[in-house]
Amino acid sequence: MCGRFANDAKTDELIREYVAEGGKPEDWWKSWAGAYSIAPTMDAPIVRDRGEGRILELVRWDWQKPANRPKGAPIINARMEKLATGFWAPAFSAARCIVPMRGYFEWTGEKGDKTPHFLHGDGLLSAAGLTWSMELPDGERSRCFVVITREARDASGEVHDRMPAFLTPDTWDPWLTPEKLTGERKVETLAMLEHTSSDVAATIREHVVDRKVNNSRTADATDPSLIEPVATG
Fold first, then answer.
1. What tens digit of pLDDT does each residue of 95-114 get?
2. Tens digits of per-residue pLDDT, 170-192?
3. Which residue among 41, 132, 146, 229 is the one 20 to 30 A from 49 at the CA level?
4. Do residues 185 and 115 make contact, with C-beta atoms less than 8 angstroms apart?
5. Keywords assigned by UniProt (predicted)?
6. Distances from the Cα of 171 to the Cαs of 65, 111, 179, in angstroms?
7. 107: helix, coil or strand?
8. Stretch (H or E) spanning 206
């Protein structure tokens, strides 16, 4: 799964990477300085296409719960195996996005004594995501996103059995296209995601980081040492 990730990229780097319009500076550009610990219900930048090219938005990591599951932990991941039918089908068909991240965290060990690991590539990773509009507990509406996950491969599989599904630059446009997916297009898009995420998985590396990242409430999201390797043994 993906329960915490880092995106320390400033808006200028995100715009250069994703060739996005980005919106007006007074909206959120000036307030985003990157974060080394992004936890569920926090805001993070996503990339999407509303039909006029790629844009960057600051969006809540969360999803509105179905009527038969009104309580419990936030919904933050969508299994790739379940995208085409059921609960995720509308968003998969029409509201796909990219979630940029420097890397993501996973944990090993027993509860209360878990070791945090940071998994990363050589630069920004482009996780596949879904985005939608949700109603918050206070009645307001907010755009939200989830990270799509898949069976883990390579370094990821040594730490956890799930990992984010990733995209490569040549697949950004077909993934983000605002045209609705139907029938064979759904099958083709899932096959594309399977292929590209397997390719990216082969480049993922991991290292152990400081346990101060374990508590999302006390971890300082501005602290770059959260993703730095620590000695083990």
1. 999 999 999 999 988 888 89
2. 999 999 999 899 889 999 999 99
3. 41
4. no
5. Covalent protein-DNA linkage, DNA damage, DNA-binding, Hydrolase, Lyase, Protease
6. 30, 38, 15
7. strand
8. strand 205-208
Predicted pLDDT at 68:
75
Residue 61 belongs to what H/E stretch? strand 54-61
Measure Cα distances from 173 to 10, 89, 181, 183 in Å.
22, 20, 14, 19
Beta pairing partners, 82:
none
Rounded CA-CA distance 106/75 in Å is 17
- Tokens standing for residue 43: 């805001």
SS3 sequence of 114-151: CEEEEEEEEEEEEEEEEEEEEECCCCCEEEEEEEEEEE
Residue-wise pLDDT for 155-164, tens only, equals: 555 667 789 9
pLDDT in tens, 131-152: 999 887 777 888 999 999 998 8
State phi, psi for 40 to the nearest 5 degrees: -50, 140
Eight-state DSSP code of residue 65: P
DSSP 8-state class, residue 29 = G
pLDDT tier at 195, thresholds 50, 70, 90: very high
> Token match 């990339």: residue?
47
40 Cβ contact partners less than 8 Å away, ≥ 6 residues apart: 3, 61, 62, 73, 74, 76
Q: Max Cα separation, the chain?
A: 52
